[in-house]
Amino acid sequence: MQHGDIRRGFTYLEPGPVVLVTSSSDGRDDIMTISWHMVMDFTPHIAISTGPWNESYQRILDTRECVICVPGVDLIDAAVTIGTTSGSRVDKFRACGLTKLPAERVRAPLIAECLACIECRLEEAVDRRGLLIFRGIGLWENPACRERRTFHANGDGTFFTDGELLNRRRQMLKWVPEGCIRF
Amino acid sequence: MQHGDIRRGFTYLEPGPVVLVTSSSDGRDDIMTISWHMVMDFTPHIAISTGPWNESYQRILDTRECVICVPGVDLIDAAVTIGTTSGSRVDKFRACGLTKLPAERVRAPLIAECLACIECRLEEAVDRRGLLIFRGIGLWENPACRERRTFHANGDGTFFTDGELLNRRRQMLKWVPEGCIRF
């Protein structure tokens, strides 16, 4: 993992990949799998939708921070396990063979096997909606990952990997912010 | 276009595809291209992030409705044109060769060439965030579309199409809501 330009942060989330969100309190780290997330601006501000049934939700409300990690499709079974087990009974890092790395500005850990990790501070919570709004404050990138394809949940137990890359940059140049080119 | 089960509605949006959002006021219809959107629950409630610089944003605040349409990748150039031109100067439907169809419960039109369209009512707006929260009230599906792959914006002028379909339904059965199987 190495530092990346935070201006590129939103480009990891805008395509809508499944992400792994780490949080930490009382010396205990946990992970949740989320595909209900949204970029809100280029800062980036990032929204996540979950709710009080989710153990990570309360931990993030308490600690006001998390790390949003983007796994490649080699981690699909880890993501499914994380999404279908409870962190109060299982150490999800150990169960899935994932490696914690210290973040720089938050206590929640990075996941070494992911393509990218974004350190986030909670800015606002709309509790009755289960809505969390974060500000991304630091990007980590992992150029060593061989599997670069992310994956997208269809919500019915199936997923699509990234497929063909299509370039329309020439037509969109005026709308592509500086510092964000990734492909 | 034919009626679909609204319980399947979220499965079109959860993977994070680029969507086309129609709105209508004073007899004038328009479209915007959005990839900053998020499923919030299985109803589905759906969030969109945009802002006052966007002409559709004000129209949706006024009329409190829209249609969220999911294009296949055969419409990528239409989506780019829609996202980079102003509806006050161009009839985007005509410019992109898109066909309007009447929706059932809102005035904004369906787009006949899309894979699916979700009629939506605005439930809540957080103006200072440019955040719109909708309730999907009707699903239309288009089984006649030959190109079934959606596409995902990377935010840097490039896009990924859907790639390989991976099935983890067996592991996730307890978490897959009834009526939503699509693949």
Protein architecture, described:
The structure is a homodimer of 183-residue chains. By secondary structure, chain A is α+β, with helices and mostly antiparallel strands. Chain A starts with a strand and ends in an 11-residue tail after the last helix. The relative contact order of chain A is 0.24. The mean pLDDT of chain A is 96. Chains A and B meet through strand 4, strand 5, helix 3, strand 11 and strand 12 of A and strand 4, strand 5, helix 3, strand 11 and strand 12 of B.
Bin the strand percentage of chain A.
35-45%
The sequence of SSEs of chain A as H and E is EHEEEEHEHHEEEEEEH
Oligomeric state:
homodimer
What is the share of helical residues of chain A? 10-25%
CATH class of chain A: Mainly Beta
Distance between the termini of chain A: 19 Å
Uncertain runs of chain A are none
Mean pLDDT of chain A: 96
Q: What is the overall silhouette of chain A?
A: globular
Protein chains sharing the most extensive interface: A-B, 60 and 60 residues
Q: Report the structural category of chain A.
A: alpha+beta
Count of β-strands of chain A: 12
Count of discrete alpha- or pi-helical segments spanning 4 or more residues of chain A: 5
The major beta sheet of chain A can be summarized as: 8 strands, antiparallel
Radius of gyration of chain A: 16 Å
Q: CATH H level of chain A: which superfamily?
A: Electron Transport, Fmn-binding Protein, Chain A
* Total individual domains of chain A: 1
Q: Which second-level CATH architecture of chain A applies?
A: Roll
Topology-level CATH name of chain A: Pnp Oxidase, Chain A
